[in-house]
Amino acid sequence: MEKLFSFYREMVVSDPIAVSQAESVVKYLVYFLPAEGSEHRQELFQIVTSAVRLLRMLHDSILREEITGESGTKTLEMRLLNFLNILNNVEIVVEMFTLRKFANSGRNIALVVMELSRVVCRSLLLLKYGHHTFNTRQLLSVERSKMSCTDCSPGHLLLNGVCPHCDPDFYALMQTRDEGNTSEIQCPTCNHDVKVSLLTSWFSVEGQRSSRQIQALSTEELDMVGNDCAICHKRYSRAFKAASAVQEVRQFHSNGMSSSSLSLPTLAAEFIDILTPSLRLLLQKLFGGKSFTPYTVSLIADLTVTYLRSSVFKNLKPHEQRAHKLFVKRLLLYLTRTPVFDKFMRSKLEMVLLFIKNFIPFGSIVASSAHSHMDTLQQLTTYQWSSG
């Protein structure tokens, strides 16, 4: 089993781009599962989707360990973030399973337990670490395209900015240098002395350049690139591209999530955002799932959160700004949520699907798949209101 995992790990590290493409292919192929003749089509779709997301988490953790040289951190902060990410990835499957096995009573218990778990985790992250305005899926993902070589196939992970696949001789010399057997490294192609200490200085865990902005002086660039050697130029550009992404992963691994200071608007917005789903579940229980009351209260709360965070947008960290922009885009999902979807949107969408089915090649597959998703969307609370 250990050998199998080592082989799998090597496959992920050797071609992260191909792994990403495989994840995407599987993710989008399940949309075309035939609606007829499959009683459990939606269950299969959600299981595959959740499995792909969990696999992506595993692949990102493998790449993160390869970059940092350490296994996943055991801090409470990282455990909470990983738990939230896993919960966001499996909540729909959990609701589908409990609804099928235990009917509405079991489903309601599962929803309450998942939401209370989310409230506890996010409250701990806010009160203990001051973290707010984040999306775990964005936060824990690794920018594979920036850390993979684009000059060779497979697109190998750049280790200290060097591709072991298309620059093997230089990489081998670097490994020897790390062991302390040689102090100078010459480019195997042009024999020019390459100052590896400059080339890899951004990738160092410690040192005067380890946490600096990724930029180089013209004199340093000459030292790193050397003469008019195409291999040297490519080597430098690869290192330059990968450095910022690698630093971000290492800093996150060693220091945890970096958050902007807590102001009154951000604190109020985070508390409203944390408590709104629980309040919505309570109102749905009191007034019914198709009532406008929980829908309207949730919409007002989300608009309030949007306003409060927008007022301090310039003070947010880059990852917080990305999370806020995603939050704003997800407001459009209110058009697909009960009761607005049933009363205003369903008939219009069915007309569009009828046109697609009759006049567009393979439209019947798309239309049947969309109809199946529409029905499931209205049945499952987590599908409509997922925060992932």
Brief rundown of the structure:
By secondary structure, this protein is mainly alpha-helical. The protein has 15 helices and 2 strands. It has a two-stranded antiparallel ribbon with strand order 1-2.
How many H/I helices? Answer: 15
> What can be said about the biggest beta sheet?
2 strands, antiparallel
Mean pLDDT: 80
Oligomer: single chain
Report the strand count.
2
- Would you list the SSEs in sequence order as H and E? HHHHHHEEHHHHHHHHH
Distance between the termini: 32 Å
Give a written overview of the molecule.
This protein has 388 residues and is an all-alpha fold. Helices cover 67% and strands 1% of the residues. The chain has 15 helices and two strands. It has helices spanning 2-14, 16-29, 41-68, 76-129, 136-140, 168-178, 196-199, 218-225, 230-255, 264-287, 292-311, 318-329, 340-359, 363-379, 381-385; strands at residues 185-186, 193-194. It has a two-stranded antiparallel ribbon with strand order 1-2. The longest helix is centred in the N-terminal third of the chain and has 54 residues, at 76-129.
Topology:
Blueprint (H helix, E strand, L loop, with lengths): L1 H13 L1 H14 L11 H28 L7 H54 L6 H5 L27 H11 L6 E2 L6 E2 L1 H4 L18 H8 L4 H26 L8 H24 L4 H20 L6 H12 L10 H20 L3 H17 L1 H5 L3
Antiparallel strand pairs: 1-2
Helix pairs in contact: 2-3, 3-4, 4-10, 10-11, 13-14
